[in-house]
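Now produce a polypeptide, keeping tokens residue-aligned:
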Amino acid sequence: MAAMRQFMISTLTGARTASGQKITSIPSFSDEGEVAAYALSVLSPVGYGKLGSPQRLSRRDEFKIREPRSVEKVVASCAASNLISVQAAYAYNTGVFTYLPTIRNFYAHRNDDTWRKVKNVAGGVGVYGIKYPDQLLLTQLSNRPVTVFEDWCDDVELFFYQLTL
């Protein structure tokens, strides 16, 4: 998710794509504080209003990117020139962004509820009878030469490759 935040900031402050083209947006932004304020206005208009509709936000006050589609929504709202690449990246049919937050949440909180959710994720990827979360990530997928973790890493690599074109 940190990479998604950095991607959004880079996109809206006019970085270049992997092919060297400068990214443009309307409006244009000069720093991450402006991007954070704009993102909050798009993703949480009520929260933005409660803060007094600031032109800049500190890192502490910015919207926490937990769902990658949030970045797509912000990029689309300002007609960024790389929007087609962003939409193509999100078109990949991957479960990593659906399942990864649950795994992260388990390690952050480690309780019965988060463990139950990890077991549900395991069932969703076709892995049953796990005794601990690491076992899910290290299990080889059936009829595949890779583990769940390796499969997710491959998905993330393809996603970011497409995202930065």
